[in-house]
Design a protein that fits this description.
mainly alpha
Length: 64
């Protein structure tokens, strides 16, 4: 760039980067929202498995 249209040249990429970052952030947030129930179910199943294992071995308390 030769400096004549530097203001316009710097404004457009900044707007594009901001828009791209917002789209990426929105996509990531939707994916994260989709995974939250999955992770919660996996954690619940893991805790239940540990609790059943402890009960099977006759322990009254197990470190999770």
């Amino acid at each position: 760039m030769n400096g004549n249209n530097q203001e316009l040249g710097s404004l457009i990429p900044n707007l594009y980067v901001t828009w791209s970052a917002m789209n990426l952030l929105e996509s990531i947030s939707w994916v994260a929202l989709g995974f939250v129930p999955t992770f919660a179910a996996m954690e619940a199943a893991w805790r239940m498995a540990k609790w059943r294992q402890a009960k099977l071995f006759g322990a009254t308390q197990v470190r999770l």
